[in-house]
From TrEMBL:
<keyword id="KW-0812">Transmembrane</keyword>
<keyword id="KW-0677">Repeat</keyword>
<dbReference type="InterPro" id="IPR023395">
    <property type="entry name" value="MCP_dom_sf"/>
</dbReference>
<feature type="repeat" description="Solcar">
    <location>
        <begin position="133"/>
        <end position="233"/>
    </location>
</feature>
<dbReference type="GO" id="GO:0044610">
    <property type="term" value="F:FMN transmembrane transporter activity"/>
</dbReference>
<protein>
    <recommendedName>
        <fullName>Peroxisomal membrane protein PMP47A</fullName>
    </recommendedName>
</protein>
<feature type="transmembrane region" description="Helical">
    <location>
        <begin position="136"/>
        <end position="159"/>
    </location>
</feature>
<dbReference type="GO" id="GO:0015230">
    <property type="term" value="F:FAD transmembrane transporter activity"/>
</dbReference>
<dbReference type="Pfam" id="PF00153">
    <property type="entry name" value="Mito_carr"/>
</dbReference>
<dbReference type="GO" id="GO:0080122">
    <property type="term" value="F:AMP transmembrane transporter activity"/>
</dbReference>
<dbReference type="GO" id="GO:0015217">
    <property type="term" value="F:ADP transmembrane transporter activity"/>
</dbReference>
<feature type="transmembrane region" description="Helical">
    <location>
        <begin position="94"/>
        <end position="116"/>
    </location>
</feature>
<feature type="transmembrane region" description="Helical">
    <location>
        <begin position="203"/>
        <end position="226"/>
    </location>
</feature>
<dbReference type="GO" id="GO:0051724">
    <property type="term" value="F:NAD transmembrane transporter activity"/>
</dbReference>
<dbReference type="GO" id="GO:0015228">
    <property type="term" value="F:coenzyme A transmembrane transporter activity"/>
</dbReference>
<keyword id="KW-0576">Peroxisome</keyword>
<feature type="transmembrane region" description="Helical">
    <location>
        <begin position="41"/>
        <end position="64"/>
    </location>
</feature>
Length: 338
């Protein structure tokens, strides 16, 4: 007679000796899934914290680049002149217009992005049985994470762009009368700006610029892919430090932002557009800007944006690694006490 065990059926379940093995296997699988979920959350929390800290440190550059993006080329000035104009008309708070919504936005954006990136990466690793992803697999994971992030967080960034651009800026008084006019020109808060858009322009205006934003999914894909490939190459030689992460994050963001900047300009203008301009498509907007302002119109504020993006990414990856390590250590301490 054969010693082979028959396949289990409802009337012929697994032999008693095999059932514990199956239960143990199921338990290990459940523990692995729980561990992976916990690791995804750790990455998401670290990314959210790193994004919040890096955004707070570089926000004046966000203000300068955003205002330059939504201005026509002929109205643009040098970065120093833009700083002086904002300080004269609005004081130091003008450089931080929309900071509240930006911090909320970057926290949610990074949490969603890094959670879905790690989730997608783990999925690819399970299906391919590989410890490390190829460049294409990393880009696919980034595309899934980026697309989910855009659809969830676009309303936050529409509100932030409106607050940062401050379309009322041209009517603001100069420094000597600014203080007397503060009450009448008080900038609306995040909730007030959100409600104003919904009330006056409709709920769908919160999704203005979604198409160029989806195209811009390639930005973090390029950034993170470059970062991951550099990190993997360095890990073969030595342990990666926070300084290494800072420099590699800066290089990744420099390349990504330089390549995708025209779409950043189109997205920002879509966020503040009104009237017929709000119905203009991405391709039509690109053509109009080139026709009216030349190719240079697509790159308004690029120096401030590249500087801000590079610094933000560098700080983000440095902070993220530190926060991730701290999160894992805290989780282990809690597990030991439990």
């Amino acid at each position: 007679m054969s010693d082979r065990v028959a396949a289990p059926t409802p009337s012929n379940p697994l032999p008693a000796a095999t059932q514990p093995q199956a239960q143990a296997q199921n338990l290990l699988t459940a523990q692995h899934v729980a561990s992976q979920q916990s690791d995804n959350v750790a990455h998401a929390l670290a990314g959210a914290g790193g994004g919040l800290l890096s955004m707070a440190l570089t926000y004046p550059l966000v203000t300068l680049s955003t205002r330059a993006q939504v201005e026509k080329k002929k109205a643009q000035s040098s970065t120093l002149d833009a700083v002086k104009r904002i300080l004269d008309r609005e004081g130091i708070p003008g450089l931080y217009a929309g900071l509240e919504s930006a911090l909320f936005g970057i926290t949610v954006t990074n949490f969603v992005y890094y959670y879905w990136y790690e989730f997608s990466r783990a999925f690819f690793q399970r299906t391919t049985n590989k410890a490390r992803l190829s460049t294409l697999e990393s880009m696919a994971a980034g595309a899934l994470a980026g697309s989910a992030t855009v659809m969830i967080t676009n309303p936050i960034w529409v509100v932030n762009t409106r607050m940062t651009a401050r379309k009322r800026e041209e009517s603001l008084p100069a420094a000597e009368t600014y203080k007397n006019a503060m009450v009448s020109h008080q900038a609306p808060g995040t909730v007030a700006t959100f409600m104003k858009i919904v009330r006056e322009e409709g709920f769908l205006r919160l999704f203005a610029g979604v198409l160029p934003a989806l195209v811009l999914v390639i930005n973090p894909i390029l950034q993170y892919t470059i970062f991951e490939q550099l990190k993997q190459a360095l890990e073969k030689r030595r342990k990666v430090t926070a300084t290494d992460s800072f420099l590699m994050g800066a290089l990744g963001k420099l390349a990504a932002t330089s390549i995708t900047y025209p779409y950043i300009t189109v997205k920002s203008r879509a966020h503040v557009a009104s009237g017929q301009g709000s119905k203009e498509g991405m391709t039509a907007s690109l053509k109009r800007i080139v026709r009216e302002e030349g190719v240079g119109g697509l790159y308004g504020g690029i120096s401030a944006k590249v500087t801000q993006s590079v610094l933000t990414a560098a700080f983000l990856f440095a902070f993220k690694d530190v926060l991730y390590d701290a999160t894992i250590k805290a989780r282990r301490r809690i597990a030991l006490k439990a």
